[in-house]
Amino acid sequence: MTAVALHCDVLVLGAGPAGMAAAAAARESGAEVVCVDLFASPGGQYHMQPPSASGAFGATSQVVEGRAAERRCRELGVRFLERTEVFWAEPGFATFANQAGSPVAIRSDAMVVASGAMERAVPFKGWTLPGVMTAGGAQRLIKASNAAPGRNVVLAGSGPFLLAVANTFGTAGLKLDFYVEMQRPRLSALSLLARNPGRLAEAAKLMRGLRRSGARVLPGHQVVEALGDGRLEAVRIAPLDASGRPRMHDSFTVENIDVLCVGYGFRPVIDVTSLLHAAHHFDDALGGWVCSVDEAQATTVPGLFAAGEATGIGGAVPARLSGRLAGLHAAAFTGRRGVQGEVASLRGQLRGARNFAAGLARLFPFPGHLIEQLGEDETICRCEDVKVSDISAAISDGAADAFGVKMWTRAGMGPCQGRICGTALSEMLARRLGQPVSDTGYNRPHMPLRPVPLAVADAALGLMSELEEG
What pLDDT does residue 470 have? Predict the structure, then answer.
């Protein structure tokens, strides 16, 4: 077990588009920068590097851009800590992490949280069957191994990310059986692209990828049930009426399906910003609870900055722009005065990118109403095996927010700490109590943020004492 104790000017959490942009900007400004990331190489989900540069994804723009961003950071002198998972952070900033079984402690003068997003799960009948997975999980599997998640695959849900996943199938030369999108094509989508002509080529590429996958496309439909005895064997699909509700009398079953990939967009990962007591607010179009920042990407905690999806779902373009802004201002906070002349231009570009993201969000609103389709026996919290009926009983007994339900039922106390079930729980509470989703709150983080061996946690905490004495 090799211990790592570091001090730096700026610590960046996350090495996706936002994190690498922040790290490069801070380093250009003269700051000493450490960038921590969970994965084996920088890039995040968007810039994920394939195992072979000669494979199907080696020359794609996302991979090439990610490789260039990493190279730029390393040339500047950014120190990357890969395979490193933060399990605790304290004001100051003291950060503790687990690097593949070894303790890490980092003291920094400023911090940029670029923790990205995770998929916004929506439970449905049969969603716990083996063979049902998230759309993002399928995409990562294909990019990492160039192998299909199954033989007969249905991709379903709603949002532009579904197109990106279908394009991943097509690029890899893999087959999709069905592409099931809740929304129908609308003229407003063409209008949005017309106002943002730079995105036309990207949209056309995604559509070509969908066609290459060979999928039968079903707009205005929803997968309402996963069927099987012990594992997925079939899916039930229903057309949607004008209000977005399934017409069950017109539903049909597709047999011989061994994988169902489901995606309804993303939610920001706000573990660390919440832990450090930064202000957050709820915005359904931005993915739910997001970290509040000003024009400098500064949070309400001095020295703490946030960028990318942690401040609202928007995609790679606003992530990079907000990351660069955060890096410049974080370096300035530590007394470094580097490249500042571009700030006004960056802010203008970011506003434009955010406006485009907001337009997409209006085209693909989060379907929180799907939670109303769940039966009382359906599981909400998979970690603790909490069912809809358990939550109903808790509400009847007086639970009025996410914390109350957690205390009554243990929903959100498992290894995922409510990351999977949190969205569904909040939507259910809001509908049962007749109140805004924002009033239900969210699962507050506690020690440890992620599972960590006790020996590693103890050693990491001890390292901080050595840093302070040094």
Answer: 55
Q: Where are the alpha helices (DSSP H) in 157-237?
A: 160-171, 187-195, 200-213
φ, ψ at 376 (rounded to 5°): -65, -20
Q: Is residue 451 part of a domain?
A: no
Owning domain of residue 393: 368-435
Q: Would you say 266 and 313 are in contact if contact means Cβ atoms under 8 Å apart?
A: yes
CATH of the domain at 386: 1.10.10.1100
Lowest mean pLDDT among 131-145, 418-432, 456-470: 456-470
The letter for the amino acid at 407 is M
Question: Which one of 263, 297, 323 terminates a domain?
Answer: 263
**For 198-216, how does the pLDDT look when each residue is reduced to its tens digit (9 = 90+)?**
888 889 999 999 999 999 9
0.90 surpassed by pTM? yes
Phi/psi of residue 383, nearest 5 degrees = -60, -45
What one-character-per-residue DSSP string does 74-113 give?
Answer: HHHTPEEE-SEEEEEEETTTEEEEEETTEEEEEEEEEEEE
Instruction: Based on the fold, state whether residues 134 and 257 are members of the same structural domain.
Output: yes
Residue 55: inside a domain:
yes
Close Cβ partners of 352 (under 8 Å, ≥ 6 residues apart): none
CATH, residue 330: 3.50.50.60
Q: Do residue 254 and residue 284 come from a single domain?
A: no
Classify residue 127 by its DSSP letter.
T
Asked if residue 444 belongs to a domain, the reply is no
- Residues counted in the chain: 470
The total number of structural domains that make up the chain: 3
pLDDT tens, residue by residue, 323-381: 999 999 999 999 987 666 899 999 999 999 999 999 999 999 999 999 999 999 999 99
Contact present, 149 and 261 (Cβ < 8 Å): yes
Q: Can you tell me the distance from the alpha carbon of 218 to that of 162, in angstroms, rounded to the nearest whole number?
A: 13
Decide which of 212, 240, 263 is a domain's last residue: 263
Q: Looking at the structure, do residues 428 and 358 belong to the same domain, yes or no?
A: no
Answer yes or no: are the C-beta atoms of 80 and 435 closer than 8 Å.
Answer: no
Alpha-carbon distances, residue 142 vs 29, 66, 170, 172 (angstroms): 38, 18, 11, 8
